[in-house]
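Reopening this one. Same input as before:
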Amino acid sequence: MERRGGADRRQVGERRSAIERRLSLQSAVDQIHGALKLLTQVAESEATTLSEDQRRELEGAMLRLRFALERLEEG
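Same output, byte for byte:
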């Protein structure tokens, strides 16, 4: 059986690490999409029962999530 050199092992580890980072990022993106979808449903279904302050807080939370999502998708 052929043994790999140290440099080869590092490259495999680096690739695995990059894949794990990509999967982690995708998972975060998916979670933020899900949260935005849920918050949008709440905002639409509770629009008449939310106070002005609650509506403003909900919109602020959605804005922060969209900003985070953009940052994640950029890099």
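So the earlier flakiness isn't reproducible anymore. For the record, The radius of gyration is 21 Å.
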